[in-house]
Every structure is written in C-alpha cells, then in structure tokens.
Amino acid sequence: MDPGFLDLELIAMQLFSGVALGAVFVMLALGLSIIFGMLGIVNFAHGNVFMVGAYAGVFVMERTGSFWAALLFGPLMVGALGLLIERFLIRPLAGRSPDDPLLLTFGLGYVLVEGVRILFGSDGLPFATPEELSGVADLGIGFFPIYRLFVVGVVALVLVALWYGLERTRLGLIVRAGARDPEILRVLGVDIQRLWLWVFALGIALAALGGVLAAPMRSVNPEMGNVVLGEAFAVTVIGGMGSLMGSVVAGLLVGIVVSMTALFAPEMASIAMFAFMALVLLVRPQGLFGKPGLGV
Amino acid sequence: MQTLDQTVVAAPPKVPRRSPIALDGVSRWRAPLSILALLALPFLLPSQALAVNVLIYGLYAVGYNLLYGYTGLLSFGHAAFFGTGAYLTGIGIGAFGLHPLLAMALAVVAASGLALVIGTVSIRSRGIYFAMVTLALAQLVYYVALQASSWTGGENGLRGFTVSTIDLGIVSLNILNPLTKYLFVLAFVGAALALISRILASPFGAVIEAIRENETRARACGFDVERTKLLAFVLSGLFCGLSGALSAIHLSIVPLDSLAYHTSGTAVVMTLVGGAGTFFGPFVGALTVLVLEDVLSLWTPHWQLALGSVFILFVLFLPRGLWGTALGRLTALRGHR
Amino acid sequence: MNPVSNPILEVENLGRRFGAFTALEGVSAAFGEGRITAIIGPNGAGKSTFFNLLSGALKPTSGSLRFSGRDMGRVPQARFAHLGIARSYQITNLFPRLTAHENVRTAIQARTRRYDFWSRRDALTGLGTRADEILDAVGLSGRRDRTAASLAHGEQRALEIGIALASDPKLLLLDEPTAGMGPEETKEMVALLRRLGESRTILLVEHKMKMILGLSERILVLHHGRLIADGTPSEIQTDREVRRVYLGQSGGYGYA
C-alpha cells in the first residue's frame, strides 16, 4: 500500500469524524445562542438538558422500538419540560440581575441529573445504532459510518429549517427584531412573554435533539451533561454568543480541532478544545462572530 | 436659598435604606468576631472533621465571595484555584519532601499565578461570557491534571503525602490530634479573614464595590476597571488556593474532583446560601451546605436533588442568603439615622 | 458667532459613524471658559453621540476634539475624568446600594489613591469632608446616609451631578439634568446649575426650552447629526432653520 494514499484517506475520515462531532456541538451551541439572544440568559442546565434528551430517546426507544419515534418525541417531550421551566422558574426572575437565571439553571442542573438517576439508575445505558443506519458507506475517498452521515444530515436540515424560519417567516422577523431590541416588540404589541416561552422551549428542544442524535455515538449516563456543558460553552464563546452563524462555524471548527488532535495525541483532545478557546479569546474576545464592546 | 431636600417629597424606598454590606461600627470587629464564632464551632458540631471542613470550605467561599459578592464577577471556575492549592501542596510534600508550610506557601503562590493567567483571559471578555469562560478554563486545568497523572495520580487522585506533624522549630504540632488540627487550620483562616477585612475596608474595597454597583459609572469616574478586576481575581485565587492547601493537609489526599465543575459550583452555592456580599455569610453558607449534605445523605442517596431544589428556592425567594437576609432585617429594624 | 479666545474646548469637523449610519457629522465649535451652553435638537439629532464623544465614551471617526489645547483623540475614557472633564447621565447612573455620601466619595477617590489595600478608607477624612461639601453644594446634605436607590428622583438627579463634581472638573457635561422632573424640581435644578456655572464651564443637553432660554448664554442646535445653528438665545429663537425644524416636528418649542 502506498503510505501517502493511506494518510490522505485517514485524514479525510478524521476530518469527517470531526464534522460529525462538530454537528453535535452545533446543536448545543445553537440552543444556547438562541436562548441567550432572545432572553438574555445563559442556560447553565443546557448540558444536562442534552443528557435528558438522550435519556428521553432511550425511553421512547424502549417503549416503541423505533429510533425515528425517539428522534421525534424525545425532543418534543423535553421541549415541553422546557416550557414548564421557563414559565415557573425563569419568568419569576424577570427584572432581576442577569446572574439570577444563570444561577437558577445551574441549580436546575443538579435536579435534572438526580432526577435521571432516580428514574433510570446511575449506570450508563446502551443505545444501539439503529439497523437502518448502521454500517459504512463507500464514498470513494473512504468508508464513512452511515450514522454519522445521518447526524450531519439531520443537523444540516435543522439549520436550513431554522434559517428559513428566521429569515422568511413573520414570526422569524419578530424573533430577530426582538433579539436586537426587546423594546420594539413591546411597542408593536407583541406578547413578549409568550415569545420567550416558546423560544426557550425551542432552545431546549434543540439541545435534547442533540442528545438523541449523540446517544448512539457516546455512552448515555447521568454525568454526560456536565462534561458537555464546558464544551458547549467553549464552542459558544469561540463563535460569539447570540450569533447563529458563529455557533455553526465554531461548532464545526471545534469538532475538527478535537478530531485532528485525537489523530496525533488522543489524550490531548479535550485540552486542545479549551486551549483553542483561550487562544481565540486572547485574539478576539468577542468571539469570531460576536460584536465587540463592553458589558452585556 | 431653597435647597432640593426641602421641596422634594421622599418616595417610599423599596430598596433597603442601607445595604447589609457593612454594619458601620460593627464592621471594624467583623474579623475578630468571626474568629471568635469559629473558635466555638468544634464544640457545637457533632464531628471535628465537619468543623475543619467548615473552616476550609468557609475560607474557600470567603475567597470566592471577594470576587462575586464584592466585585460582582460570577465565576464558575474557582475549583481551578482550590485544586491547584491542594495538588501543589501534596506534590510539594510528597514528591519533593518540602516542609508542609513551605509547600503550602508555594501552592498559594501558584494558585495566585494561575488566577493572574485565567483572569487575564476571562476579564477581557464581555460580561456574560465571564461565567462560561471561567468554567471552560477550569475544565482545561482539570484535563491537564488528568493527563499529568504521573504527578497528580490522575483519576485516582494524589496520595502518599500524609502529614502527621508540623515542625515549627520551637514546637512540633501533632495534627493527628483533631483539636490541634482545627486550631492549625483556624490560624490560617483567621489570618486570612483579618487580611480580607482589611482589604475590604480599604480604598481598594470601595473601588471593587463601585464596580459591582455600576461598572460603567466606575469607569467614567476614572477607575481602571479592568486592572482592578484582575487584582480582585488574583486575591480571590490566593485565598481559594490557601483553602485548597489546607484541604490537602487535612485529608492527606487530593481527589481529582477538587478541580471539577462540582467544586466550582460548591463555592457558588455556599456563597449564595450564606449571603453574597456579606463578610461572614460564606461561613454560614458553608456550614449550612455541609450540614445539609451530611443530614440529607443519611436520608437518601439522592440528596443532590434536595440540595439543588433548595438552591433554586434560594435564588427565587432568598437571594440575599441566610446571613444577608438576617442582616438586612437587622438594619431595617435599627431605623433611620 | 463670536470667535472665542483661549477656548477650553474645541471641536473641529467632529463626526461619528456606526457602520453605514452617520450619527454626527462636521460639527465645529469652540467653547470659552465659565459659560453655560445648551445643546438642543429633536430626538435622534445626535446630542447623546456628541456627549459621548466629548466625554470619551466614544471615539470620533472623523474630526478632532481638543480640551485645553490637548488632542483627546487617543485618550482612554478613564483618563477624561483625570483631565478635568466629567459628565452626568440622562438615565440615572449611580451606585445603587451605596449611600449618597459613598457615591460621591468613591468618585472623589478615583482621582486620588491608587491600589491602596491597606489604609482604612473611613480614616481618610479628607475624602469624606470633600464628599460632604459636594453633597452640600447639590443640596443633599440631609440625605447623606441614604442609599442612592432609595432617593427620590429629583434627589437622584442631583446626586448624578454631585458625582460629576467629584473630580473637580473644569468642564461639566450634563445630559438632561432635569429629566423626569416637574416644574418645582426643575426650578431648583436651574438654581443649582447657575451656582455651579459661576466657577465652571457647563455644557448641557436639554429639552425644556423655557429653562434653557433662561439659563444659557449660548445655544447649539443639532439636527440629523449636523450643527444647524449656534448663537445666543435670542438669535436662536429667531433663526429660521431652527423654527422650521422645531415647528415642523412638534408644532411648538416643546414643553417648558
């Protein structure tokens, strides 16, 4: 075998692996950014919502045997939970310090983790790759796992749907206007509270969807949310909080950085991600797509 | 000539007339009074180990409070300083055979240095990023420690550096004796409290509070806000590093958890539950949380659910914490001057 | 417009753009010491931007700003207070949980100590005395120990000015000092401003025409980011451009 050829294929596979990993990061960062852009809060329970999503997927899988049902109903169920959370825990904090929702969601994280432990136990649960999506596909330059292709596809679909919703619908116009200047919405008579309620639930559902998608690729256990939280933050900081484009670019970039680092020094992969974030912060504190300036 | 205060009708204030941050005359004595209260602690609590933990985590929370309660910067990565203080103390004693006090001193310097680095990176980011960046950077430190397992013991933590006596030249402290250990730790905590009280009462203390109250105005007044924040960050890292060093001496092991998200969260919880921005509040918070953990874990393995719920209730209904609310009521009772 | 000799403040062709939007353009004026000058204009005319430029919160994208002959283009905002320029804010911008006394004293401290961790600040009586003097000057001696958040609106506006006075500025920029005040409170504020104007240069942004006409010696009128008039109150009142702008907007000179 020609070693040069092997290298290229390996790199291509690793790159793609990075894109698949990045796709999950994108889902996480999107939800965080949307929630922040609209409500102005940093959701410290986001990682744990991701985890709850994975468990919701397991739950639906067990009941129905269908991965597609899990993919649809898992995020919906968790999104509904998000509605309750916004309505009863976050809304009462309106008008108070912006730190308060952050602190509350932080506490909520503990509740979610322990809740999952009570319902599903502390050990990890298996989540098998669905039959239809297992195996590899030969794409000429190499063999790529079909499931990962699927994940990238789903995320791409979600991105298109979001873009369409934001850019082409009236509701999207309201959301974009509100993210820039909530006062305008009040003047226009838009029911801000309902808007925030649903946007929050959307952000939560996106994280949960990420969890279901990621479940076959990593171990499903109650601690996975806390691990992922720091990663989600790193990606969002790199991309720029509140910027959807930033979430996408940063998510993919980080996925690739981690994946390529794993090729040469697997134990340094996580370190590479956070080191990358520190580097970006030193050069461009507002993130790649964030707006410069002081304060919130 | 008429003056404004004669013609203006005073609107009833919804905000407390005087913040509970300093009770005037009492505040001069807050350090000695706190130390006195802490002296009584081992006789009030069921176990000495718990009492020492209250001291250690109380100091950790006090150091954290300097940055959060007084300067207004919400960090979620303070485990990095606690853990660094702990690990370097253990490594200094175990791997280099240093005298425990020397190891502690070096560990504290290292924690302060780390705070300088982390602070520099995180303070220049916009306000909302701060919590996220500090969390992520602490994760970086965590993974580095996990990787450097030949030094840190990796997943299993650092062991093999048991300290049973501390040689002070003229006298040798047997810290296997619970009371001696308590007084040894209290000596450091007391000194730290005195220092912190002094710092808070200084002009520097006024600046950090101004930054907390209104950062833009502080800048417009002419304060170098970024540099002041960095100084507060380093001081905070210093005292949290000290608490970590004491923890290492106390436990004779340093678990990897010392650097984990949960430990960062612990600082936040204790400070908020006790009373952010009050002097003694963090100790009240540490005591409350540690006792709650002990009691709840007897009752159910899922005590974190209860703790998380309690914390949520505090954020919603008692944001000034136990001590903070009590002080607030007290000053309201004292009436107008 | 009369030429000003030894101006304390000079702006030449001053402008500020935000991307494609030009908030201020081509403003040139020279301000003499010890005068009270008002800046007026309809909403969106660029008054806030002008003030932000003068106080260093924003840097100009065109033109220059000179204070006592010194080019301020590269000077960071925090240095402005040290050089003698202070401003108050249209939306009350105080330290809410500090007392009125502490609010002013902290502002004074900004000019004096550097990174002092050790002294007891209560023992630094010089600062405290000066703070009390300022509180007296703005009429808040009776409210010395109340938290800023608990003060009545008019008192908060006075405290705003008190904080600005703390740096002993030569130039005071006051952004709508009577915002939200009724007629009685406004009269008090005017009296205060007249007192202060005896020893300082004051630039103020205001909407209350009757008040401005009575108080200021000179008025600048901004519209769509440009300076359309600059003169004495009587000159401004008869200026055709100004009348067109104001009458066209609201049918009058606004409320007094």
Could you please describe the fold and organization of this structure?
The complex is a heterotrimer of chains A (296), B (337) and C (256). Chain A is mostly helical and 296 residues long. Chain A has a domain at 24-221. Chain A has eleven helices and two strands. A two-stranded antiparallel sheet of chain A has the order 1-2. Chain A is globular and about 60 Å long. Chain B has a domain at 48-259. In chain B, α3 (48-70) runs parallel beside α8 (178-201). The radius of gyration of chain B is 21 Å and the shape is globular. The two termini of chain B are 25 Å apart. The model of chain B is unreliable at 1-23 (pLDDT under 50). Chain C has helices at 47-55, 77-83, 100-109, 125-137, 153-165, 183-197, 209-215, 233-238, 240-250; strands at 9-18, 21-31, 36-40, 62-67, 70-71, 85-88, 171-175, 201-205, 218-223, 226-231. Chain C starts with 8 loop residues before the first strand and ends in a 6-residue tail after the last helix. Residues 249-256 of chain C have low confidence and may be disordered. Chains in contact: A-B, B-C. The interface between B and C is large, with 43 and 59 residues.
